[in-house]
Specification:
Distance between the termini: 33 Å
Number of helices: 7
Order of helices and strands: HHHEEEHHHH
Largest sheet: 3 strands, antiparallel
Structural class: mainly alpha
Mean pLDDT: 87
Radius of gyration: 20 Å
Number of strands: 3
Strand order of the largest sheet: 1-2-3
Helix content: over 70%
Amino acid sequence: MKEWFKENPLVTFAVKALAIYLIWYVAYELVILPDGRVDRWLSLNIISVSGGVLDLLGYDVYTAGRIIGIGESAGIMLVNGCNGLEAIGLFLGFVIAYPGDNVKRAIYIAIGMMVIYLVNVLRIVVLAITQVFWAEFFDFTHDYSTTAIFYMVIFVLWMIWANLGESPAASKKTSPNVA
């Protein structure tokens, strides 16, 4: 069985990525989410930064806890499932499961988490603006457009790591042919 995994690096990657994601998912659902502190901190931070971006763009923005809005709009609430923490777990699973230098991996994970965070800030800014100017498209924008973009960014980040990290074939050490 061990040999089969060695000969099938794609399967090895998929099993590792799934195992890491499942561990993250269970830890998130049973420990992090019920505790609430990490989700709350991240959500409030994203709301604060998104409010700053909207303010820089000239909007009359308000924030109240996890709610952000423009002008007299009802605002949008950033709930736990939308703050990007679960997506970061998915990203971590992909990067950790794929071969590569651990120093490069640590640096790349930090960069990738920052990119995911910034994309989520942009997502919240777009949703706040959509709610005010194109309210009829809010649900579509929330459910499909920004979510699809969010996960495409995670996929692109993983593809970049797959090119930066060690290729599975290269991780097999082969002896040079001797004449």
